[in-house]
Amino acid sequence: MRLIPAVDLKGGRAVRLREGDPLRETAYGDPVEAARRFQEEGATFLHLVDLDRALGTGENREAVRLVAEALSIPFQLAGGIRSLEALREALSLGARRVVVGTVAVTALPLLEAMLSEAGPERLAVALDARGLEVRVAGWQEAAPVSALDLLRTWAALGVRTVLYTDVRRDGTLAGLDLEVVARVREAWPHELLAGGGIAGLGDLLALKRLGVEGAVLGRALYEGRIRLREALEVV
């Protein structure tokens, strides 16, 4: 199972939000230093998120560019990518893969156009949910659609990678809701990444047992609850 450290960008800094709430953030300093550290510890792929863009409060294009220049490993970029122009910009910044969320729920024709533009290997879809209640607009709004129905729709459209994040637990170190992850795993026949509340090696081993292909790690790495080099040896 691939372990994917997350670097969330807000105001040019690496931060973590609790349950996606911009008023409950913890800052962790220079995102370039964080990205380099994860690479040195053995990461083979990173997850970058432009929180300002996702929340409509700005953008972190320069920070993304600096992180991309500092890395020799690939990364995926998420956060506020809601147009073909934004998709092209993300790819031009060096992203190996782009993750879209809101448009994959609210604008399926645009999702189809993005898949046609980038191809399924370079476009992933974020399933952001409180359990199975889908969230959009930087996790701030509920969407009137079933998570499991969405998964079936995305598979039919040609999506091949989904990132499931449990918004209730993200940034909390509360552990995973494995029952919900298992339901998502059962409903999704292709590559599945999962995150939101991962607190220790036990969570990673549980994801591996469920057949999840990748885990996105945030606060647990920044606060030393998981040592990346050691975790890579275990999973």
Annotation keywords:
His_biosynth, alpha/beta, amino-acid biosynthesis, 29% strand, RibuloseP-bd_barrel, TIM Barrel, single chain, 1-(5-phosphoribosyl)-5-[(5-phosphoribosylamino)methylideneamino] imidazole-4-carboxamide isomerase, cytoplasm, 235 residues
**Domains, number:** 1
Per CATH, the superfamily is Aldolase class I
- The backbone outline, from C-alpha atoms, is globular
pLDDT < 50 stretches: none
Describe the strand arrangement of the main beta sheet, using strand numbers: 1-4-5-6-7-10-11-12
Give the percentage of residues in beta strands.
25-35%
The number of helical runs is 11
Question: Can you count the beta strands?
Answer: 12
- Sheet/helix structural class: alpha/beta
The CATH first-level class comes to Alpha Beta
Mean pLDDT value: 94
Rg on CA atoms, Å: 16 Å
CATH topology: TIM Barrel
Bin the helical content.
25-40%
| End-to-end C-alpha gap | 6 Å
CATH architectural name: Alpha-Beta Barrel
Could you describe the 3D structure shown?
Keywords: Amino-acid biosynthesis, Cytoplasm, Histidine biosynthesis, Isomerase. Belongs to the HisA/HisF family. With 235 residues, the protein is an alpha/beta fold. The protein has a single domain, classed as Aldolase class I (TIM Barrel, Alpha-Beta Barrel). The chain is 39% helix and 29% strand. Strands 1-4-5-6-7-10-11-12 form an eight-stranded parallel barrel, surrounded by eight helices.
